[in-house]
Every structure is written in C-alpha cells, then in structure tokens.
C-alpha cells in the first residue's frame, strides 16, 4: 500500500513547475502500478499548449474554470469544476485558464518524473527504471 500527501512531496523532485503551471506527481512509474497520478495547477490568465504523443491523459478539473481547444479538430470546450477530459487520441490541445485551475491527472503509460515538455508540449516516452 502507498500512502502519500501533497504536503510531503512539496519541494521534492516530485514537485515540478514551469511557467504558469505546477505538477505534484503523487504516483509515478517507479511505483509500479501502471499509471501516474498528478495534481496539476495552472495559474490564472495563462495559456498552455500540450501534445502527449506517447501518453493517454485523463484530467478532472476540481477548481477553477477555463477553455480547452482540441487543436486537431478545432473544437472548443468550456471547463469548470467537475469537468473531465480524456486525451485518448493523443490530441494536440490548448488550455486557457481564466482563473487558477487545479486538476487531478492520470497518465498511461506512467511518467517517471524525469520528463520535460519539448517545444511542441510533448513528453518523451521515458522508460521506468
């Protein structure tokens, strides 16, 4: 059994931040459970483009509101607390946070914690040790 709190991983290598976002990686590939689980915060009035070519991501928005654009299909979705989106087709997407957004995210295959978004917003597929 694994029990962790976001407080205990704050400030560790599981607490990763970039311009306008922060991801607390609660479960990682090294935990050996087949997925990773993150609490991600996107700051208000920021725009981010992502394209997870190597991962499927499910996102559940628990706080805040914003707009999600599927860049592959040109479809826009309004997001608020309780919204979920699943990137099951590896869709390129843009996220605009009107207010600070807090999301719970699951990745499959799991991320290891060593990934960094490239210039297209892609995480490379990094093998679990």
Automatic annotation (TrEMBL):
For this protein, the record's InterPro entries field holds: Ectoine_synth, RmlC-like_jellyroll, RmlC_Cupin_sf
Give the matching Gene3D superfamilies: Jelly Rolls (2.60.120.10)
User: What EC numbers are recorded for this enzyme?
Assistant: 4.2.1.108
Catalyses: (2S)-4-acetamido-2-aminobutanoate = L-ectoine + H2O
**GO biological process terms held by the UniProt record:** ectoine biosynthetic process
Q: Which UniProt keywords apply?
A: Lyase
Q: Which pathway is this protein engaged in?
A: Amine and polyamine biosynthesis; ectoine biosynthesis; L-ectoine from L-aspartate 4-semialdehyde: step 3/3
Q: One of this protein's Pfam families, by short name?
A: Ectoine_synth
Q: Which GO terms describe its molecular function?
A: ectoine synthase activity
PANTHER family associated with the record? L-ECTOINE SYNTHASE, PTHR39289
Q: Which family does it belong to?
A: Belongs to the ectoine synthase family.
What this protein is reported to do is described as:
Catalyzes the circularization of gamma-N-acetyl-alpha,gamma-diaminobutyric acid (ADABA) to ectoine (1,4,5,6-tetrahydro-2-methyl-4-pyrimidine carboxylic acid), which is an excellent osmoprotectant.
Looking up NCBIfam families in the UniProt record yields: PRK13290.1 (NF009806)
Please give the name of this protein.
Answer: L-ectoine synthase
Organism of origin is Nocardia yunnanensis
* Highest classification ranks of the organism: Bacteria, Bacillati, Actinomycetota, Actinomycetes, Mycobacteriales
């Amino acid at each position: 059994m694994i029990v962790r709190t976001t407080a205990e991983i704050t400030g560790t290598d599981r607490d990763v931040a970039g311009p306008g976002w922060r991801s607390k990686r609660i479960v990682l590939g090294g935990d050996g459970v087949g997925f990773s689980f993150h609490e991600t915060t996107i700051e208000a009035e920021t725009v981010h483009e992502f394209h997870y070519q190597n991962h499927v991501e499910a996102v559940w928005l628990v706080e805040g509101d914003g707009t999600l654009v599927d860049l592959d299909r040109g479809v826009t979705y309004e997001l608020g607390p309780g919204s979920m989106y699943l990137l099951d087709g590896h869709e390129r997407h843009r996220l605009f946070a009107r207010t600070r957004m807090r999301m719970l995210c699951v990745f499959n295959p799991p991320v290891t914690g060593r990934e960094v978004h490239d210039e297209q917003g892609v995480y490379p597929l990094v093998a679990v040790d």
